[in-house]
Design goal:
With 355 residues, the chain is α/β, with parallel strands linked by helices. It folds into 2 domains: 111 residues, Alpha-Beta Complex (Aspartate Aminotransferase, domain 1); 236 residues, Type I PLP-dependent aspartate aminotransferase-like (Major domain) (Aspartate Aminotransferase, domain 2, 3-Layer(aba) Sandwich). The protein contains 9 helices and 14 strands. Helix 2 packs across helix 6. It is globular and about 60 Å long. Bound molecules: pyridoxal-5'-phosphate. The site of pyridoxal-5'-phosphate has 12 residues, from helix 3.
Length: 355
Amino acid sequence: MKKYNFNAGPSILPVEAVQNTIEAIKDFEGSGIGLLEISHRTKGYEKVVADAVALFKELLHIPEGYSVIFLGGGASLQFCMVPFNLLEKKAAYLNTGTWANKAQKEAKLFGEVVEVASSKEANYTFIPKGYDIPKDADYFHITTNNTIFGTEIHEDYDSPVTLVADMSSDIFSRPIDVKKYGLIYGGAQKNLAPAGVTFIIVKDELLGKVTRPIPTMLDYRTHIKEGSMFNTPPVLPIYTALQTLKWLKSIGGVDEMYRRNKEKAGLLYAEIDRNKLFKGTTAVEDRSLMNICFVMNDEYQHLNDEFYAFATEKGMVGIKGHRSVGGFRASTYNALPKEAVEALIAAMQAFEKLH
Ligand SMILES: *Cc1c(COP(=O)(O)O)cnc(C)c1O
């Protein structure tokens, strides 16, 4: 039976990206040696990294003065690398979910952290608005998409201080104005590549300002200088990332991606709002285009497990909600075809007819 992959991460990738990676594993660019067994210093591979950087810059319209690097360690390593490199005295954090909270916790090891606002008391069902950002903070950190709770910041904030964003789960899902950010990072395993690579977009002039010594591996400048080749980079995930970026360019880039994402999410939210069995879990204006959370309506709570089994039977994979929200979460990342959303909607409608 056809499976529809709604996994939250690692998650669905474009068919072409996976197919090209399989071919490269067998034979990397006609070299007679597979991608898993080449040196990262192989000429053809250096071009893979360079091309991935170039496509990052092209697709996101990254201005001059910014670098793009690929590292290991996941977004979680960035929770400490960001303050290591940027926090001299004080940093501001917006607490919008589990990941935002974890990022903030790490920063406290390096200096004063001001939590400008938090939606924790409301189980992170909305994005706080109307708070003050201290003008003397070294940076302001946000998590643009809250993967677990299904909320998303839909605009590029105007921040009085350097804006730093964890975009792990919504990078390339909508156009962004990179010049409003000082640093953007994310694990690639949601919208870009298999697990193992982290991307960082950083404004060069922000680096080298803190007075603390930074271990070589944790200093962004090391990796910028060496073009992500200071040590062995995640060879395979970067290759797949390049294939995903080529696919993205081929379909019309980030503008077209945004149009498709709005369409997919719009269809599913409309069904959640229409269907008598279900309801959404977040403030409507903050609804994520990438992770769509919903639960059974109060009077139908007892049908939770039955719907999960029913949807699974119809080919839905990965729709169980995170334990901190319950119910269901359909991750509708870039590579998820509209057909998958339509299949989920059909399952929701068929289940409604049974009850
Ligand atoms: C998945 C996720 C993370 C954690 O990423 P790792 O690469 O596993 O460290 C951090 N932030 C957000 C927003 C995420 O979705």
